[in-house]
């Protein structure tokens, strides 16, 4: 039995197979899981085949529950390529849950800004991405779909943002390997390539989830200006603190998005 099959069976045995929507929460953004109704948490350590992250700001657990009556699964934390995990391990959870019936995967992340006109705290819906991590998550012969981001799910996020009164930009996310932050020259180059936000996750999960049959949307929280744009040194503590400050807006957006997302899945 493969690690993916073991994880899928372990998720099912733990009662984590009933969610229509999967939300993957990035650094400092785990507070959304604490607002679920009828919540039940399962630590990654209790699931066979589930990799565990040591990065601060990642709780390392799944939480199942309901948002406005809709059954959802929330993944608090993820593993990263820069921690030494393989692309297969980084994407194993989204593949497993897509195989258990999660029709939509909403990925979130904390990102650095590549635009001088976007202040810290900006929320951005991913319209597309640049995979600059030097590797991809698909096996030979596995179907790719170009951009993995579903336009209808993106429209659902826009609708939710308007209803919740939460400003939501659109843009392109550049996924780098990390773990070091980018230099000012790299930020300028990424901006010239079309990047609006820069991070170290999401791109592999988006591609793999789409290949596994799920529809995909994603949101970045711009936690800080990129190097050369802001005037202060970058740090992971700053990322986590920005997540705390944006928690209410972030949660209101995701809560408002649940019903429009489900409607798009069923249409």
Q: Which features does this protein show?
A:
alpha/beta, 9 strands, 32% helix, single chain, Rossmann fold, 267 residues, 8 helices, five-stranded mixed β-barrel
Text of the CATH class: Alpha Beta
SSE string, helices as H and strands as E: HEEEEHHEEHEHEHEHH
Average pLDDT rating? 91
> Spans of 5+ residues with little confidence (pLDDT < 50)?
none
Largest sheet: spatial strand order: 5-8-7-6-9
* Most strands sheet: 5 strands, mixed, barrel
Number of helices: 8
- The name CATH uses for the topology is Rossmann fold
Number of domains: 1
Q: Radius of gyration in whole Å, from Cα? A: 17 Å
CATH superfamily: Nucleoside phosphorylase domain
The share of residues in helices is 25-40%
Number of DSSP-assigned strands: 9
Q: What percentage of the residues does DSSP assign to strands (E)?
A: 25-35%
Distance between the termini: 36 Å
Q: Supply the CATH architecture.
A: 3-Layer(aba) Sandwich
Write up this protein.
The protein is of the alpha/beta class. It has one domain: Nucleoside phosphorylase domain (Rossmann fold, 3-Layer(aba) Sandwich), CATH 3.40.50. Helix content is 32%, strand content 26%. It has eight helices and nine strands. Strands 5-8-7-6-9 form a five-stranded mixed β-barrel, surrounded by four helices. A hairpin with a 2-residue loop joins strand 3 (61-67) and strand 4 (70-76). The termini are far apart. 49% of the residues are buried.
